[in-house]
Amino acid sequence: MIRSIALVLLSSLVYIGGTLNASAIYAAELPTDIESFHFNPPKDGIPDNTTGGASRNPDRCRHQETATKASNITLLAPNSFMGHTISAQPAFFLYAEATLAQKVFVNIENERGEVAYSGYQSLPTDTGLIRIIFPEDASSLTPNIIYKITVVPVCADILRPDDPALVGYVKRISNLPFQSTNSFRSAFEEAMMYAESGIWYDTLVLLEQTLRDDPTFGSVNAAWNMLLAIGELTQFDLTLNAAPVSDCRDSLCSLP
I want to staple 190 with a disulfide (CB 3.0 to 4.6 A). Which of 144, 157, 184, 240 is the partner? Predict the structure, then answer.
């Protein structure tokens, strides 16, 4: 694969107070041509999903727009193809826009009804990207088995039958379709390889990591929104929260 890589010349290295400007070198090493980034969706589709039809609930917190968006919260899961991962305990992302919900109920189970994780996670008050993480005691995903991700914004003190549900799917693949090495010069370069192989969730994680390192780097932001568009998700101005969503398992986050 041909990539456009900015050359870093010794004569152009920038020193500030006698210290090498690491940010300048980092930016220079990243591929700069967005045409180098391609996501090839996997051929396996998602199960028929009747959850998430648009609703006209006057309660703004319970307003459902699509299968992956409700209560001003979007689950970053593709709407038309299976989301692949190579991770045994992958990270998932939500994007919240001034939501009224203060926590979400997350359930991840396979088509056999075996639950990998079920619990509450709190939401920060700021609008932005939110990372849902597996707790240490969560089960690993079994390779080549489809798992359903259900995220329910909790609009009151307890779950109610009319709370909306965001639904996505994930399948852990057992083998990387490319030769894995430790020679990637950046998370973005690694993300490009995962994207070409159609591995959705890991590509998101690597792009998010790159954006945290340098949120102003244009090619990374463009690649992020290109990925969202391919997954039939609304693009947004990226705002990164400083901390991941906490795993709420205390009395305040449990059902009474």
Answer: 184
Count the neighbouring beta carbons within 10 Å of the beta carbon of residue 184.
Answer: 14
Q: Is 78 exposed, middle or buried (0-12, 13-18, 19+ CB in 10 A)?
A: buried
Indicate the pLDDT class of residue 77, thresholds 50, 70 and 90.
Answer: very high
The token pair at 10 is: 């010794």
Residue indicated by tokens 């990387």: 176
Q: Which residues contact 220 (CB under 8 A, 6 or more apart)?
A: 30, 188, 207, 210, 211, 214
* Max CA distance (Å), the chain: 66
pLDDT tops 50 at residue 34: yes
Q: How buried is 88 (Cβ within 10 angstroms: 0-12 exposed, 13-18 middle, 19+ buried)?
A: middle
Q: H/E/C letters for each residue in 4-45?
A: CECCCCHHHCCEECCEECHHHHHHHHCECCHHHCCCCCCCCC
Q: What is the dihedral of CA 182, 188, 189, 192, to 10 degrees?
A: 120
How far apart are the C-alpha atoms of 97 and 95, rounded to whole Å? 7
pLDDT of res. 218: 72
Q: Are 233 and 105 in contact (CB under 8 A)?
A: no
Helix 218-230 to helix 187-196 angle (10° resolution) is 20
Question: Tell me: the pLDDT tens digits for 189-202?
Answer: 889 999 999 999 99
